[in-house]
Amino acid sequence: MIRKADPCVLVIFGASGDLTARKLIPALYEMYILGNLPEAFRVLGVSRRAKSDAQWRDELAASVREYATRWDAVRWQEFSKCIEYFPGDAAQGEMYRALADRMAAMDASAGTRGNRLFYLSVAPELYESIVQRIDEAALVTEGRRWCSIDASTRSWQRIIVEKPFGHDEESAASLNRALGRVFEEEDIYRIDHYLGKEVVQAMLVLRFANTMFEPVWNHRYIDHVQITASEKVGVGNRTGFYDQTGAIRDMIQSHLLQIFAFAAMEPPTSISAEEIRTEKIKVVRALRPTTDADVPSHGVLGQYAASAEEGAFVDLPGVAKGSTTETFAALKLHVDNWRWAGTPFYLRTGKRMAAKRTEVVVQFKRPAADLFHDIPHAAGGVRGNRLVIEIAPMQRTLLRFETKVPGMPLRMDSVEMQADLEKQFGVAAIEAYGPLLVDAMRGDQSLYKHRIEVESGWAAVMPFLDQRSVGLRRGMASNYAQGSWGPAAADDLMRRDGRAWHDD
Ligand code: BG6
Fold this sequence. Notes:
With 504 residues, the protein is of the alpha/beta class. It is 34% helix and 18% strand.
């Protein structure tokens, strides 16, 4: 049975930020419209700027209008009553007493029962100190004292931590330790909005609710898997942040490795959070460490060049002169387990590319014997089946197979079967953050990352980030044109393996 979301106060640190206005509040509003929020629910936004509840609500109304998939002024009026603002500096310990009083007042007026969902949407360097201040102000009572003998009425305190979760393996481990000193692992929610995307979850159903995929989902039948997240947009106004971060940290270590985990994991014994996370942890840990000798041939980094309209990445204000931060990365990773021995996974992401496309391409091997080698084929020959799980811009699954062209003489072609989830079910995609936030209110961690997953993910990409990647970064500046599919070297990486990216 699906548990309902518990009454609670959602405390957003970093309330004036972009994420709150563009994603969190629109997502909560959508959840309200769809009836998924608890009846007793309050949002308390914490930020330094002084403003009243009414001022903040007005600002948010404008962004919900712009970013939510639905807008209804009357419903917004109803929903916005649960939003309040708290001016304060999260770095100052004194603030937390007043914050505690404000939350207690909400419990009394709204019935939120002492349940707190803290959301860290601030600069990552503030994470550890906020967690410490929460502890010093004794805002976490769960596990320390019982508010009631009856577990169903006991209050809880949970924390959602935004990415980037650390900037390398060591800093991620340090952040995990800091969180672990204050919160139990079951109360720590490391968010990755890609896990809230419908199709990522649909992959679980596709793989494990059908009999036809799982038996062939291994190295015997699958030649390789490609995971692409390309974007047409650039880095927007986050130039300083992005210059410190780059494509591997921003997209691969987080989002793409999560998609990878769903595509590559073993079947869990149930769909409980614990079982799913156990399998994801196992497969991320099974990623083979890339040796120093393999780094040059297993990775390609790129930086976009100037176009007629736009300067190059290095020309952006806020980007260090001569920066070697990558705006494109393609990595080849191997999984050391029985299922995937010899089947590589190629992960690719980039800014200012030819198209916005997020997808998993499962390329099957060609048939063991080609009976039709002398039959004309529109594509030049049997190509092996291909399953494309498209996450964006459309939510659909495409299966390519070979067929006979009607008529005589015998001729062949490849055709594609398509399942378009939006068309099929008539339900438009919802903002990924919404279901994730509701899951945290329900205490369901299935779509959140475990400590070990995050640290193992860092370990897998570190060879492409530290001094071992110096060679890859040499001469990388402006090595791909805006609006292209990335540097030529990324095509060479595939060509050397007798493969090609799915760019058509
Ligand atoms: C964010 C990255 O996590 O994901 C951004 O920081 C990126 O750089 C974004 O643009 C992509 O998300 P989506 O949902 O648009 O694919």
